[in-house]
């Protein structure tokens, strides 16, 4: 029997007004394992009103001590319930359970970090002028399905630490750990209405949050086109926005790179979480001089990946849904049609992968790790964000060409450089138009370092002190 989850509004579990529900599907089996209340606009308004009242009529925004205490207690409760949250995340999202557990513990650490940033920020400019930082008000967080709990924490922790109240909308495909998080904060001593979580369709609930004049800030993570819609809706009251949108990150290998290390890095960059990461290293740029040698090692390492149900703790689990699987397979067809050379994978995995039947859309949503060689920079698979386990390999002649290729998309979220010459690698990194550039590593997002994108990859920054600033107003007080 499926477990049912309600909405978390004003400190209690609440059924959606319409009593409508949606199924929550395990991507490894294609079967329903839970249901969740489907919020509509009326439910979103209830949550917004609860958050507004809590901001205006409790001491939450005025008590950094309370905020720090709640965040630290929430962190402790997450550590206590790490196995419950990890299991829920794997059922909901399909990710390997080892990674799910790590993300729960990372989230706890993240809450502890922001608990240390709750102190009032004040700057004395001179004897007449003081600058103070104040919470914005009601903050809405809209998060995707790829890393559900982690992405929720990136919105919730800085918003609460700064003294705002929150309405969090997780993806309707992966709502469960976010809903559980509402109850965790209640147990940690959060006043009613400060933390609200409502699951529902983005076109309904997300649109209400983004457009509401009672919401003062919206932070969104998701696709670029949806991000543009959020930005338009937010203009209704010129609310502050943070947008973390799409990516098509270039993973540049220089001729002097440690090939064994760079190969492992390239495999992790694209196939981690089945390629369902905005920073995925989906474009691998190789110099002509080492291309053949590198590809031989890359194909061998890709072939070693263990694919299966997240509870077997494989190297790669399923993609999130039948729809995403079909999108991935469609892009694979585009690659072949446009003249790229398929050198590994390219198919749906059928019976034997995590128990999936792979028949007529019934069963798990498993796509083979896929590698295309001989990809031209203007091909669709080199320009469009696929959000699946599909790697495009492009060859370059000299460094200038590599930089031109790397910067030749509308995105600018992340990238990487592999080289034994760190000084030179830093020079190359400085020429990449992206918010994060790794050197001889990939996918790191330290909690104290700012994260965000250039160009159509977004606006603003998350994580670190700069992430906190996104949830604060700046006031100048001047004495005459």
What does this structure look like?
- By secondary structure, the protein is an alpha/beta fold.
- It has two domains: 3-245 and 457-478, 3-Layer(aba) Sandwich (Aldehyde Dehydrogenase, Chain A, domain 1); 250-446, Aldehyde Dehydrogenase, Chain A, domain 2 (3-Layer(aba) Sandwich), CATH 3.40.309.
- It contains 15 helices and 23 strands.
- It has helices at 41-57, 64-80, 82-93, 97-115, 148-161, 176-187, 202-211, 224-234, 259-271, 291-303, 322-337, 380-383, 399-406, 422-430, 464-469, and strands at residues 3-5, 7-9, 12-14, 21-26, 31-37, 122-124, 129-135, 138-142, 165-169, 195-197, 217-221, 240-244, 250-253, 283-287, 341-344, 370-373, 390-396, 411-412, 414-418, 436-439, 454-455, 458-459, 472-478.
- Strands 15-16-17-14-13-19-20 form a seven-stranded mixed β-sheet, with helices on both faces. A six-stranded mixed β-sheet has the order 10-9-8-11-12-22, with helices on both faces. A three-stranded mixed β-sheet has the order 1-5-4, covered by helices on one side.
- α2 (64-80) runs antiparallel to α4, α3 crosses α4 (97-115) and α4 (97-115) runs parallel beside α5 (148-161).
- The longest helix has 19 residues, at 97-115.
- The protein is globular, with a radius of gyration of 23 Å.
- Mean pLDDT is 96; it is low at 351-362.
CATH architecture of the largest domain: 3-Layer(aba) Sandwich
- How much helicity do the residues have? 25-40%
**What is the count of β-strands?**
23
CATH hierarchy class name of the largest domain: Alpha Beta
Q: Characterize the biggest β-sheet.
A: 7 strands, mixed
The total count of helices amounts to: 15
Q: Can you tell me the residue ranges where pLDDT is under 50 for at least 5 consecutive residues?
A: 351-362
First and last CA, distance: 69 Å
Class of secondary structure makeup: alpha/beta
Q: For this structure, what is the CATH homologous superfamily of the largest domain?
A: Aldehyde Dehydrogenase, Chain A, domain 1
User: What is the CATH topology of the largest domain?
Assistant: Aldehyde Dehydrogenase, Chain A, domain 1
What is the domain total for the residues? 2
Strand order of the largest sheet: 15-16-17-14-13-19-20
Choose one word for the global shape.
globular
User: What amount of the residues lies in strands?
Assistant: 15-25%
Radius of gyration of CA atoms, rounded to a whole number? 23 Å
Q: Mean of the pLDDT scores?
A: 96
């Amino acid at each position: 029997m499926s477990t049912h989850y309600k909405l978390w509004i004003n400190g209690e579990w609440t059924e959606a007004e319409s009593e409508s529900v949606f199924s929550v599907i395990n991507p490894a089996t294609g079967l329903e394992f839970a249901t969740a209340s489907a919020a509509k606009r009326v439910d979103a308004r209830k949550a917004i009103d609860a958050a507004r009242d809590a901001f205006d009529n409790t001491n939450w925004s005025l008590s950094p001590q309370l905020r720090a205490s709640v965040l630290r207690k929430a962190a402790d409760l997450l550590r206590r319930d790490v196995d419950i949250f990890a299991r829920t995340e794997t059922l909901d999202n399909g990710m390997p359970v080892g990674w799910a557990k790590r993300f729960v513990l990372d989230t706890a650490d993240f809450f502890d970090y922001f608990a240390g940033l709750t102190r009032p920020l004040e700057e004395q400019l001179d004897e007449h002028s003081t600058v103070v930082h104040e919470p914005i008000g009601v903050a809405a967080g809209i998060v995707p399905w790829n890393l559900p709990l982690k992405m929720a924490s990136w919105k919730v922790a800085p918003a609460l630490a700064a003294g705002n109240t929150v309405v969090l909308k997780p993806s309707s495909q992966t709502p469960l750990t976010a809903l559980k998080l509402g109850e965790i904060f209640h147990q940690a001593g959060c006043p009613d209405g400060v933390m609200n979580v409502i699951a529902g369709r983005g076109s309904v609930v997300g649109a209400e949050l983004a457009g509401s004049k009672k919401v003062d800030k919206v932070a969104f993570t998701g696709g670029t086109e949806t991000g543009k819609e959020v930005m338009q809706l937010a203009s209704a009251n010129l609310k502050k926005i943070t947008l973390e949108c799409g990516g098509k990150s270039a993973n540049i290998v220089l001729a002097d790179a440690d090939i064994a290390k760079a190969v492992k890095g390239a495999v992790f960059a694209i196939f981690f979480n089945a390629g369902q990461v905005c920073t995925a290293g989906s474009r691998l740029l190789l110099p002509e001089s080492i291309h053949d040698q590198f590809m031989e090692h890359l194909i061998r390492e890709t072939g070693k990946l263990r694919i299966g149900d997240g509870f077997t703790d494989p190297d790669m689990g399923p993609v999130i849904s039948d729809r995403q699987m079909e999108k991935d397979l469609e892009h694979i067809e585009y690659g072949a049609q446009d003249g790229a050379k398929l050198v590994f994978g390219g198919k749906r995995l059928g019976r034997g992968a995590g128990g999936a039947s792979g028949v007529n859309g019934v069963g798990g949503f498993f796509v083979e790790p896929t590698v295309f060689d001989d990809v031209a920079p203007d091909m669709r698979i080199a320009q469009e964000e696929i959000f699946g386990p599909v790697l495009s390999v492009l060859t370059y002649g000299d460094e200038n060409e590599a930089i031109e290729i790397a910067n030749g998309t509308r995105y600018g979220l992340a990238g990487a450089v592999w080289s034994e010459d760190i000084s030179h690698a830093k020079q190359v990194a400085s020429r990449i138009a992206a918010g994060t550039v790794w050197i001889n590593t990939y996918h790191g997002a330290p909690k104290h370092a700012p994260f965000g994108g250039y160009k159509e990859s977004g606006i603003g920054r998350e994580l670190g002190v700069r992430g906190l600033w996104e949830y604060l107003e700046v006031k100048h007080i001047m004495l005459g």
